[in-house]
Design brief:
Organism: Vreelandella salicampi
Order of helices and strands: HHHHH
Oligomer: single chain
Helix content: 40-55%
Strand content: under 5%
Structural class: mainly alpha
InterPro entries: SapC
Largest sheet: none
Radius of gyration: 22 Å
Protein name: SapC family protein
Number of helices: 5
Length: 91
C-alpha cells in the first residue's frame, strides 16, 4: 500500500486490488462483456482505495486501545451491570 511522506509502507495480506492500467487498456468488446457485473465491482474497488487510510487508522486505534471486549467492559462500568430493562412488543 502506498503511504504518505515520512510513513513506512503498510503490508496488507489478503486484499486484492484492480490493476487500473490494465482496466483502462481493455478494448471495447472486453469491457462490454464485463460491464454487467464485474466492471461495477472493479470500479467500486478503485473508488474504495481512498478509504484504506481509515482502515489503517482503525487498526492502529484498536492496537492502542484494546479489543471490542474491553470496550464492552467499559460500557458496563459506565451504565452498570444490573440492567433490568425489558421490552414487550406484544401489547
Amino acid at each position: 500500500m502506498e503511504c504518505g511522506e515520512g510513513q513506512e509502507p503498510l503490508k496488507v495480506n489478503g486484499l486484492y486490488r484492480v490493476n487500473e492500467k490494465a482496466l483502462n487498456a481493455l478494448d471495447a468488446d472486453a469491457y462490454a462483456t464485463l460491464r454487467s457485473g464485474p466492471m461495477a465491482l472493479a470500479h467500486a474497488q478503485l473508488f474504495s482505495m481512498s478509504q484504506l487510510s481509515q482502515l489503517t487508522e482503525g487498526a492502529k486505534f484498536h492496537t492502542r486501545h484494546g479489543s471490542a471486549d474491553a470496550a464492552l467492559e467499559n460500557l458496563d462500568k459506565l451504565f452498570g451491570e444490573d440492567d433490568d430493562l425489558a421490552f414487550d412488543f406484544d401489547s
